[in-house]
Amino acid sequence: MNFSHIYSGNPVDRGEKERRDDQWIADKAKDPTSRFLPLHDLNVMVTEGGEDGLGWINVADLERLSVDATPIYLGMLDGTTHFVVDISGQEKAVAELSEGNGYRFVDARSVTDIISRPDSGIVAQARAQVNWHNRNGFCAICGGETFVKRGGQVRKCSKCDIENYPRTDPVIITVVSDGDRCLLGQSRRGRLSRTNTYSALAGFVDQGESIEEAVAREVMEEAGIQVGEVRYHSSQPWPFPSSLMIGCHADAATTEINFDADEMNDVKWFTRDEVVLALEGKSDTLALPQPIAIAHHLIRAWINGG
Question: What average pLDDT score do residues 282-299 get?
């Protein structure tokens, strides 16, 4: 298995069987041996000083801080139950944790610089789940209030009994090449639009669409390029808010660019030499995504012939 990407390699056993017992979940949420990871405005708590790591606390800490939130069950790790708890809006608890008590809250992107790769997988799960619960307090069918079931894997409507499950949005991200050149673009949206950074072309998979079809459609829409063979490379959970990046390489069937100016700021062919210089940080005209992103690894794999 390829757990090389940041946000991959989550070591937690998500506990499918345990989730079926709501009383077991409730008991574990009160168990003094259980561990809880606080999130504040989707920022992750880490320890401060010494070796940084995720800031796990116990039920006694939650009681002392008067935290009023439903813990979401992440799963089991080394025989211990792990939860995430959202303390957004509970400023007294946030202040007590982060003001001289050995903890601080860090953005979920930046935190990957100071935690282990397996812990980044836990962050991906925790952030995506908390974000989903925050957005789904009411039923999309009847508007009734929803409540947590199965430790947070389900929200059930209190009026129509419909069960709502967390969703993951599949996104294809593709490096297209024609031999010694690769096709990279710059979207009008997001952080890259005001820089010289170019990335792999990406877009959401439509309903009733295969990965290969999504690659062909997105590349045509964004760059006006037709593709031939599409090859899967690897995937990466991307919890902003809840995507699964499906990394591919594709062979160009045409080479004349006709990009969508409404969606893309620019699309260009770059030679292998240009990309190598950018990866080495020696280019004044091209910057590439950082290793946190699967795009970086797709580009590097193309350079290496993979």
Answer: 95
**pLDDT per position as a tens digit, 180-222:** 999 999 988 766 556 799 999 999 999 999 999 999 999 999 9
DSSP letter, residue 57: B
Superfamily of chain region 169-303: Nucleoside Triphosphate Pyrophosphohydrolase (3.90.79.10)
* Domains of the chain by residue range: 18-134, 136-167, 169-303
- Helix H or strand E segment including 73: strand 72-77
Helices 294-303/272-279 angle, 10° precision: 130
Relative to beta strand 169-177, strand 243-252 is: parallel
pTM for this one? 0.93
Cα separation, 131 vs 42, in Å, equals 7
| Single-letter amino acid code for the residue at 177 | S
Please give the Cα distance from 39 to 42 (Å, whole number): 5
Residue 7, exposed/middle/buried by CB under 10 A (0-12, 13-18, 19+)? buried
Closest CA to 238 of 173, 179, 282, 175: 173
Cα 253 versus chain centre, distance: 32
